[in-house]
Predict the structure.
Amino acid sequence: MRVRFLFLLTSLLLAAAPARAQDTGKPMANLLKQPAYVSAWKTMMAGAAAPFWIHEYAKTLDGPPTPVLPVELFGETYLLGFTCKPNACEGNQLFVLFAPRGRDAWGMLAAAPAISWLGRPSQHIKDAITGALRK
């Protein structure tokens, strides 16, 4: 009985891992097919004066297939995704950091020559995004 309990407990803990291995390395569009990540995205975008192309991306999920990257923060693994404006990627980029299991999201919009933030990130979140981009 005790062995069965330990097996069940171990299985549950592994299933609740902060960043699922199958999400790392896939495009952000894959995350945005999961309800928790969609909810986090919508919360991040609420009240944001974002360019049209970002709203269009959220509808179509048509963007570069850049894989999300794991970012260690607060002892957990967050996922950093990327998209950009079609045919004008260089000066119109969006980086989105998702908390584990899609419980929150924050964005850094790099639209030349300015950078703006979505989702009201703390300084720690901003540092995590910019630090991951320097690597």
Summary: Strands lie at 69-73, 76-84, 92-98, 105-111, 114-118. Confidence is low (pLDDT under 50) at residues 1-21. The chain has five helices and five strands. The first helix runs from residue 2 to 15.
